[in-house]
From TrEMBL:
One of its GO terms (biological process) is intracellular signal transduction. Residues 144-230 form the Serine/threonine-protein kinase haspin C-terminal domain. This is non-specific serine/threonine protein kinase. The lineage of its organism: Eukaryota, Metazoa, Chordata, Cephalochordata, Leptocardii. The chain crosses the membrane at residues 6-26. Keywords: ATP-binding, Chromosome, Cytoplasm, Kinase, Membrane, Nucleotide-binding, Serine/threonine-protein kinase, Transferase, Transmembrane, Transmembrane helix. It is an enzyme of class 2 (transferase). GO terms for cellular component: chromosome; cytoplasm; nucleus.
Amino acid sequence: MKTTTTTIAMAMYFFFIANLVSICFLPDMFPDSQLFVVLEFADGGCDLERFELHSLSQAKAILHQICVTLAVAEAALQFEHRDLHWGNVLVKRMDSREPSSTHHLNGEEVCVATSGLDVSIIDFTLSRMQKDGQPLYCDLSADPTLFDGKGDYQFDIYRAMKKENRDNWKRHCPYTNVLWLHYLADKLLNKKYKANKKSQRAWQQKFQTFLKQVLDCRTVAQVLKDCTLFKDK
């Protein structure tokens, strides 16, 4: 039996999705002559959708880390992720159990309680940034099917982004990051936790307040400044 790059790619693909639900294309859609690029990354952990959390206080630590990361990227690069669903957020438990992480935003140090969790943002396919005065972006207007999805709040965010920037994906609209924060907070609020529901009530109220406050902010920096969720211990 002849081994081709497509055969190898298929084997790797099925190994990867053995315990996952994937919407990715099967590698066998390509001819045997197809070449593939394999990229190796550090283990960022488990995606947020499948990561088991004990409580909403841990969820707050995750959301806070995401907010600070986005705020720093906004300030430095006019960054917008534009596809920050919870499959693109990775979480892992830190061996060191560091109680907080330190970030630099607009010349100030920002300390964020981690709850022993390390958070990474991935998949910048649809993202936008500006480097040396040049905007780098994916023109989402070329794929109108992206805005036709139904069945999950994620698809509403795509349409809300399009409404916000009037389908002009070149210009910087930091509010798109705010929209994704609302999405993530909604997912975290409704996620199942190991802690009993009674002990969660105070944090549920804090998240519900955040959902009411966050969409009034125009940037993630304003979210950090104005939303009470990140002022509570």
